[in-house]
Each structure stands twice: as C-alpha cells, then as structure tokens.
Amino acid sequence: MKPVQFNNTVLRDGHQSLAATRMTTAQMLPAAAILDGMGFAGLETWGGATIDSCLRFLGENPFDRLRTLKAAAPRTPQLMLLRGQNIVQYTSFPDDVVEAFVRADAAAGQDIFRVFDALNDTRNLATAIKTVKACGKHARGEICYTTSPVHTVEAFVKMGVELREMGCDSIGIKDMSGVIAPRIAHDLVTQLRARVGLPITLHTHDTAGLGAAAYLAAIDAGVDLVETSIAPFANGTAQPDTLRMLALLEGHPRQPDYDRKKLAELREYFTGVYKELGKFTSPDNERVDSDTLIYQVPGGMLSNFRNQLKEQNMADKFDAVMAEIFHVREALGWIPLVTPTSQIVGTQAMLNVKFGRWKTIAPAAADIALNKYGRPPGVVSPELIKLIADRTGQKPIEGRPADALAPRMPQLRAELTAKGLPTDDEACVLHAMFPQEFAKLHAPKAPAAPAPVVVPSAVPPAPAAAPTPAYGPGAHRYRLTIAGRTTEAVVEEV
Questions:
Q1: Tens of pLDDT along 12-36?
Q2: Residue 319 and residue 316: Cα distance in Å, rounded?
Q3: What 3-state DSSP class applies to 304?
Q4: What SS3 state is found at 359?
Q5: How far is CA 16 from CA 183, 220, 493, in A?
Q6: Do 128 and 88 touch, CB atoms closer than 8 A?
Q7: pLDDT of residue 262 exceeding 50
Q8: pLDDT in tens, 374-417
Q9: Quick one: CA dihedral 141, 142, 147, 149, positive or negative?
Q10: Beta bridge partners of residue 229, listed in sequence order
Q11: At what angle do helices 182-195 and 211-220 cross, to 10 degrees?
C-alpha cells in the first residue's frame, strides 16, 4: 500500500484551536518556506476564523496574507475552510456573493477548498462547489461528523455519494469535536472508499484524546490523507502533532517520510511564537477533555464557554448548561455542532438555564428551527415550531434558503463607490461580511511623528543595543534556521 499523506494545519487550524487565531503573517513567514520543502500534500493556511481575525484583531488584509504565503510556499497546495453559503461568517449570503468570494480566493492563489455546511445540507454547498470547479480548483466536500440517533455511517456515506455527484474531487471527514471513535473511523473510511471512490481525508482534533488513534484506524482502512499540526500548536483541541503521528506509524507499511530533524526545529521555532501569543492560549485547550464525548462541543468552545459563563456570573452552572446542549440539539433536529451552529446552540442552552427552557429564544436558534439555515438532519420539535409561530407569526420556510436571497454584488459595489473604497471582488466580499473592519483597514493612517533632532554633545554614547531576539515579547524580527538555511521576516510594531 502507498504511504498515507499528511496535510499540515499549523498555519490555520493549529493556532485557531490553541491561540485564538492570533498568529500573524510575519510570524508564519519564516516557517512557510521550510514547510513548503517538507513534502506535505497540502498546507492549510486560510479560511475558518482567519479572515475575521486578520481584519478584527491583526490589522491585516486576509487576501494579502494568502498571496504572501503562496509566494513563500509556492510548491505545496494550500487549503482553506469554507462554510458553504455562510462563506466565513455566521449568516447566509446570496449566490453572487459566494461566487465572487470563491473567484477572488482562487485568483489570490487558493488551491483546495474544504467546503462544508453546518447542517450537512448539501444544497448549501452547491454554489461554492460549482464555482470552485469553474475556477479550475480542487473541491473537497466535507462531511461534518457527529453522533446522534440520526447520524449513522450509512447516512454519512449517502452524503459522500451526493458530494461526488455534485462534482467534488475528494471527500473530507470533518470531525470538529474530536469524537470519532477509531472503529467508526475505520468503518466509515472503508465504506466511503467502496461506494464513493474518491480520495478521502480524515480531519480530527485530539480534544478527547481519540485523534491519533482514529487516524491509525483510518490509515489501516486506506484513508488517503490525514491532517496534522506542529507542537505546541498541536494536540489538545488542535490536530495531532506530526512527529507524534510519525512515531505512532513506526514500522507501519503506510508510514510516510517527513524530515524529523526539520520538524523538531520547526517545533522549536513555533514554541517561541506560542510564547509570544501566551495571552491567547490556555491550559484548558492543551489537555485531554473527555467532556467533549458527552456534550459533543468542540474543544475550543468548551474553553470559551467557561469564560462566558464567568462573565454572566454563571460559572457554577457549567454542567447544567452543557447538559442543556443535548436538549437544544434534539429540539433543533440533532444538528451537528460546528461554526456557526455550535455557538447558536451553546447560547440557547445558556438562555434556557438562566431563564427557563425556551422562555427566551435566540433569533438564530429560531432561524434554525424555521429552516433558514437549511434542512436539519433530524425532525425539529413541533412544540418549538409552534412556540416560535405563536410569538413571531413565522413558519418554517420551504426550499433552499439562498433562493430567497436577492443578489447583492451591484449593491455592494455601489456602497463601496460611495465610500471611496475599492470595488473589486475582494473588497466587495470583505465589505459584505465585515463592513466595519474592512472600512477600518482602509481608513487613512495618521502621519508618522517626525524623527527627533539629535544634537551632538560631549555625553558618552549609549552602549550598543542588544541584538534583536529571534522571537519573544515585542520582537520585531522572526528568524528560523533549519539545515543551514535561514529565513526571516521583519514586522514593525504598531
């Protein structure tokens, strides 16, 4: 059998899962060229929460990040995570906005699009997949894995067949909560290979400690690719570490060959970056948390929820809120818990505990019950639908939700023109999803203060400044030397 291939996620999901998506492009660049020479099947560098984080917290243009990383790592295909009709936001967008986003992303250098829908409603994937294919790029249709009375291996395989018929080039099993058991991973991969016949990737997290074992079982079943990261942006709520997976595959007929010395040196470099991002990391995300097996909640959300409950003076209600998530999921048709549904279900569970079950219904939870996010995999509670109808007069919609959305691209271009901002596809889609953050990115910058005038004097010169550290708090220069080759990036502090 041919060796299994690894995609590496350290530049996207690794730091999204363990450091709130705060790694900057400058911190990535020294490692990008090294990663490009490792022989990975792909580098996940974009999508998910990175677009939001670039704009909201880092003052970066996310498309510039993609172009920069593509130039730094041109040999390895780059991947992004796309939320179907939600793009990278929490609400649905019209088809013309989805099409414009995919076109702009492809033009900026994206190679592989991981397209998923939070409800596994393939109707919400159709526009994105069709546009990816029209751009000549690779469409990887994602199956969001979860467990419930309606989620079976047979149901997932049926979805895989649908994705193949929609034109997908490969299939991804997206286990966002890290709950797929090794035996189930083996059976699901076996049946997908037999009945779908496309390359298969398993993506999981090690939140509950099952990730590496699930990978081993899937590799035995013939999975084509698995996705790993690099410690310390690995394990816990992120993907299993690459070196760790190589060790687990020692002696296995499908063990791949990745340079372990370079991986160890990359780990040393990323350890420095991890320290720089210390205020965004948490021990809760680094440990095995078997609670996720009970609640099906992605690990990163567990940590965030603890903080949110503290802010609401509900820290003592954590167990009650987590237990309530089960009832909310059931009432909403056993929807998977992945962005944005995990946040919606978690919020509704908190409201139920705080005010009483369904006394207050979050608008987004009502929208799920009314099919505005798509078709839930199970039956929505009739009592909940009646309760929403009695309070709002709304009834469940029929058909694909995006069919009810009017085109927006002409309106978006007009809005940007009126503001004197760029009007290309990149600008329009960022404006559609993050209008305030996009406007801030293009706001005029304050002029730099003039340099102080230095007057010569008899005062002895100050001692020479210490060399800039390779990395550390406040460092300007990021440098990495591996196998005698040094790469570096310099960023001005703002």
A1: 999 999 999 999 999 999 999 999 9
A2: 8
A3: helix
A4: coil
A5: 28, 29, 22
A6: no
A7: yes
A8: 999 999 999 999 999 999 999 999 999 999 999 999 999 999 99
A9: negative
A10: 241
A11: 40
- Exposed/middle/buried for 186, CB within 10 Å: 0-12, 13-18, 19+? buried
- The Cα 210–Cα 186 span in angstroms is 13
Structure tokens belonging to residue 179: 């709950």
- Judge whether 349 and 319 are in contact, CB under 8 Å: no
| Predicted TM-score of the model (pTM) | 0.89
**Contacts (Cβ under 8 Å, ≥6 apart) of 329:** 148, 296, 335, 337, 345
R_g (Cα) of the chain, nearest Å: 23
| Closest of 438, 372, 425 to residue 399, by C-alpha | 372
- Residues 64-93 as b/e (b if ≥16 CB within 10 A, e otherwise) read ebbebbbebbeebbbbbbbbbbbbbbbebb
Type of residue found at 404: A
What is the pLDDT, as a whole number, of residue 339?
Answer: 84
Residue type, 384: L
Contact status, residue 144 vs residue 121, Cβ threshold 8 Å = no
Residue 313: both structure tokens together: 């003076």
- Residue whose tokens read 């998923």: 116
